[in-house]
Amino acid sequence: MPIYEYLCPGCDLKFELRRPFDCSGDDATCPNCNMSAKRVLSAFVSLSKGSNGELASIGGSPCSTCSATSCSSCGFSGS
Predict the structure, then answer these.
(1) Assigned domain for 77 exists
(2) 3-state secondary structure of 38
(3) 70: which DSSP letter?
């Protein structure tokens, strides 16, 4: 089953739920305040290991605030 992200309008909690495809468009109940939360677009990153063994981001950053093209600058291990 895929994992979907939701954002609660009441408490701004971003949470994930594993749901079947046929429930992907349904709202979810926030585990923090029990309000109805809408599904949001999930961001993701792909990592590749270069010839020197260093992890590098492909088409995005592994960290939401990072703009580096190499994960070695912050010590991200990829695990």
Answers:
(1) no
(2) strand
(3) B
36/49 Cα distance (integer angstroms): 40
Determine the pLDDT at residue 8: 97
Q: Which two tokens stand for residue 78?
A: 């990829």
Distance between CA 72 and CA 53 in Å, rounded?
10
Could you tell me if residue 75 is inside a domain?
Answer: no
Counted domains in the chain: 1
DSSP per-residue codes, 15-30: EEEE--GGGTTS-EE-
Bridge partners of 58? 46
Residue 76 lies in a domain: no
Which tens digits make up the pLDDT trace of 29-52?
999 999 999 999 877 767 778 778
Tens digits of residue pLDDT in 51-63: 787 877 676 555 5
